[in-house]
Amino acid sequence: MALPFFISHITPLTFFYFHLLYSSASASPPTAVTDLNLTSILSSFQNLTSFSSLLSSTSVASDLTRRQDPITLLAVPNPYLSLPPSSDLTRRLPPTSLGDVLRYHILLQYFSWTDLLKIPPSGVLVTTLLQTTGRAPANFGAVNITRNPLTNAITIQSPAPYSDSNATVLSLIKTLPYNITILAVNSLLVPYDFNLMASESRPPPGLNITKALIDGHNFNVAAALLSASGVVDEFEADEGGAGITLFVPTDGAFSDLPGNVRLQSLPADKKSVVLKFHVLHSYYPLGSLESIVNPVQPTLATEDNGAGSFTLNISRFNGSVAIDTGIVQASVTQTVFDQNPVSIFGVSKVLLPREIFGKDSPGVIPKPGNSAVGTSVQTPELSPSPEKSAWLSSPASSPEGLKSEGQRFRAQCGIVALYCIVLYLVV
In angstroms, rounded to a whole number, what is the distance separating the alpha carbons of residues 227 and 210? Predict the structure, then answer.
């Protein structure tokens, strides 16, 4: 009777806990925008493949992966993208300027189709991703969305009174409540009074690289090394020329260094070379890295040590940018900063040059047990102690001894089993 009593009192409580667990699991928050691969969504629509490629090649897609706010994307289908003036813009604009034009097509607000039909004829002003860059004058980084009350046609254009760039919404492509909406529009939008060449010709931003890394929250070790070595001043001085591209290892990458690599023990000049090995003396946005023509790239360390040395092999592998030093294979994990003439990318491993950390190089500690050239170390033969020798030759280790031990063990198990049965019947 104990069993029914136990079930009647415990089962309801158990069901109650299961119900709470199920309710909390089913009430998970909606998917964040950062969990969405926007280019992957666009690639499923054949008419939006060209627009998707533009987002990837200008690093705008990587900008979106870091955002957590809802957005509405204005995408231009392939047929409209191949017509002027959209075709002219995509052909003649440099990646940085084209990137800002594309940022103008990302509204920082979620609009369902029902929301669009509720827009008043006077219109609403909506901020775009371009406005957040600080490169759009006044409020020209925003768009004005209006609705024709007779036809319900939705028009999007600059808030400037005499702007001649506008686009009409063709259709709703996809919506993922309440994070993202993709609308098809019939033309690329150009921000009013926006110098399309400004992003290519504007002066260096005077970026504090160390501060940018600290703000990235995952590059404290690299920031400390750069600051202590003094090479960061040289990097910032190079911003005014062809620009620079930095590959910065994450804090986790430094903690994953092999035990035989003594980076901190290197002399100051060698440590400086390793840090310069992480820098290209040209500005490359992510899209340019992904489509780089010459995979073997010289670094700042190459300039100090001669052509052909301290080079990086950069290629695209499994959908990301891969970097091969000859002894280390790393990948680009995130964009920390990207504004001409400086781009900073987080990488999964410390880039170790083979000239310093290759076999028999000064940056590598020999593994224990390695012998000098021309000598050999033999492991002494092990002989059993007298006690072990006696045990090994004892009768118990013979087949007959093992057999008798097994018989005794089975007999003991039978006695124990019989005792348990009797005890159960008596109780």
Answer: 7
